[in-house]
Known about the structure:
- By secondary structure, the protein is an all-alpha fold.
- It is about 85% helix and about 0% strand.
- The chain is elongated.
Amino acid sequence: MEDEKVYYLVGRIIESVQSIEYNLIEGTKIAKILNVFNKYKNVSPFYFQKIEKETKELAEEMTNMTFGQLMGIISQYDVLPADDLEYLESLLSKRNQLVHKYFKYNELNKASDELKHKYLTRFLEEAVAFQKYLDNLIVEMKKDLDNVIYS
């Protein structure tokens, strides 16, 4: 396989996974605030500001976390259902293999160019599909948050 195709696919995969990470942070911020409103129904402006500040601080911390560390926070705030977390973990595993092992000498590197291209293309398709799913989920979570805050 031409190196350019490999690098293009790897770059797109990394871009998609980074978008997933960003959406997970956004989803966690929204879920944390929604959890407060679900627990208390009415929240004073002072308490809301406090929670909003804590949420921004958490999001900032999350930008420096590994994907594995993000998973723990996401689980804590129920951002995704368990099945989605399992799927996300499989994407994480594939991403780790790609980033840390793909260019080292291993079984995949002995495979044909066609097989490598199929593997990378399939991985990209999975990552993009999950990325789009998260995009839509975040939109819905933002609507829920707006409904809670402005109703």
